[in-house]
Amino acid sequence: MLDRQDGIYLYASPSYLASAGEPLQPADLSLYECLGFRTVKAWTLNCPTTQTDMQIEVGGRFQLNSVGMMRRLATLDLGIVLTTEAMVADELASGRLQRVLPLWQGVPVPVYAITETRLLPAKTQRFIEFLRERLGQG
């Protein structure tokens, strides 16, 4: 799971929103260019104030396997990205990206480390411990 202090939100460039319009509700996202992973066809969003979850089918011209490339395409006015705030901190500070649908956030995605055996080399054990600490599952 992600660090609890690093939320997952929707972001787009001001220019993209000026040309495409800003979505007013999560269901509107199906009408926009959404920059996401090739294997993910829907985003699950949560509104903490109302405790509401929604699953929205998304799509677009660009389906990728790189979070960095998704961020880059968003800064190039090519769509909306769902990612952690830390991932786009520089772009937010410079004004190249802004939050979209600020009342809504993404749901954390579980991360698993699958190994062939429990007998792991020390460096592999340290790496898994690092992931547990960094991703918030001490």
From TrEMBL:
It comes from the Bacteria. GO terms for molecular function: DNA-binding transcription factor activity; sequence-specific DNA binding. It holds the Pfam family LysR_substrate. InterPro entries: LysR-type_TF_proteobact-type (IPR058163), LysR_subst-bd (IPR005119). Residues 8-135 form the LysR substrate-binding domain. Belongs to the LysR transcriptional regulatory family. This is LysR substrate-binding domain-containing protein. It comes from Iodobacter ciconiae.
